[in-house]
Amino acid sequence: MELGLITFGSLLPDPVTGTILSQRERLRDVVRAAAEAERLGFSWYTLGEHHFGERDVIPSPALVLAAIAEHTSTIRLATGTTLVANRDPVLVAEDYALLDLLSDGRLEMVVGGSFFPEPYAVFDQAPESKAARKRENTELLLRLWTEERVTWQGRFRPPLDNVLVQPRPLQPRPPFWISGGVGSESVGLAVDHGLPLVVGTTARRPDVFVPVFDSYRALWKERRTEPTGRLGAASHVFVAETSQEARARWAPYIETYLTVRKPGDVGPPAPPDFDTYVGPDGPAICGSPAEVVDRLGRLQELWGHDLHLLAIDVGGLPYADVQAATELVASEVLPQVRTLGRDDRVAAGA
User: Fold this and answer.
1) In contact, 328 and 289? CB cutoff 8 Å
2) What is the CA radius of gyration of the chain?
3) Could you give phi then psi for residue 330, rounded to 5 degrees?
């Protein structure tokens, strides 16, 4: 199983010291953390896309990943998620082709739609059109990257007549993943086009997502003949030398992250019970390196995935603490989980 890092560039006051970075400082930390992730051996560095909220400050992952490309050379540069349901797919095709060229073919694009209401309101899009927009825009984007000239007509943007999108991605077909949740629409879209799937597993109990992973494999076997596509997941994670240290250090930061007002909230969210949230049936992982290895192993057995993205830099956690945890994961967790699921992939011909 591969491990990557994912960040949304959340910008919040440190709940312990009250310190808050400037937006520029926060973005600079995101860029330099990517270079450290490459040095430490992580496979992916992933940026989320959010708009109009008080917590997250990266509305355009392509811009930040282009900066990161200049400071790295091997790590895969990913989005999690590019909001293709809310963006013009022609502009997405152009922007991310540029990124693929600037990064020497290291793009991994995960596409989806916002689950917050503000983008639909600000961009004048009906929220109930999310699934249809995601499918239509994904299918158009695939055509723009695999056909030289495209003539097309759909529901949500003006028609195209013999349009050539330039520049062209460096990769013949840049790795293209579908982002999914507990619904079935994303699974069907991914299987229909033979695409891998990343499931957003950060906010609910792990068992809730078992049917999603299972349905992807079952539907793939039903509709396709090639080996099953790759599967990814994500977790909020913190690690320290001991479980007690990890929990004591992380508790105020994850609580701050989860209770800050987000777009669509009508009041402050209630804080989760921390022990339940990081417990064996909770969505987050917090503990010693051995505990983190054990949790990741049990999740891989449960879901059968081969990519796991770790969200460490949440809630105003200082950069030094983020890097200390990241280094501990790299030295004591990463070597232990690399072989997870490998026998299954070989047996499946992947």
Assistant:
1) yes
2) 20
3) -65, -40
- Cα–Cα nearest to 310, from 258, 235, 257: 235
Query: In 3-state terms, the chain is what percent helix, strand and coil (to 5)?
Result: 45, 15, 40
Which residues are CB-contacts of 116 (< 8 A; sequence separation ≥ 6)? 50, 51, 52, 53, 262, 263, 264
What the block records as the tokens of 48 is: 């989320």
CA–CA separation, 17 and 270 (whole Å): 22
C-alpha span between 100 and 81 (Å, rounded): 16
Q: What is the pLDDT along the chain (350 residues), one digit of tens a residue?
A: 999 999 999 999 999 999 999 999 999 999 999 999 999 999 999 999 999 988 889 999 999 999 999 999 999 999 999 999 999 999 999 999 999 999 999 999 999 999 899 999 999 999 999 999 999 999 999 999 999 999 999 999 999 999 999 999 999 888 999 999 998 999 999 999 999 999 999 999 999 999 999 999 999 999 999 999 999 999 999 999 999 999 999 999 999 999 986 555 566 677 789 999 999 999 999 999 999 999 999 999 999 999 999 999 999 999 999 999 999 999 999 999 998 885 444 333 33
Half-sphere exposure of 343 (CA within 13 A, CB side): 3
Give the count of beta carbons closer than 10 Å to the beta carbon of residue 91. Answer: 11
Using CB atoms within 10 Å of the CB of residue 187, give its burial: 0 to 12 exposed, 13 to 18 middle, 19+ buried: buried
Look up residue 37 and give its amino acid.
A
Beta-strand runs (E) in the chain: 2-7, 44-47, 76-82, 107-111, 150-152, 160-163, 176-180, 197-199, 231-239, 285-287, 307-311
Are residues 230 and 271 in contact, defined by beta-carbon separation less than 8 angstroms?
no
- Identify the three-state secondary structure at position 80: strand
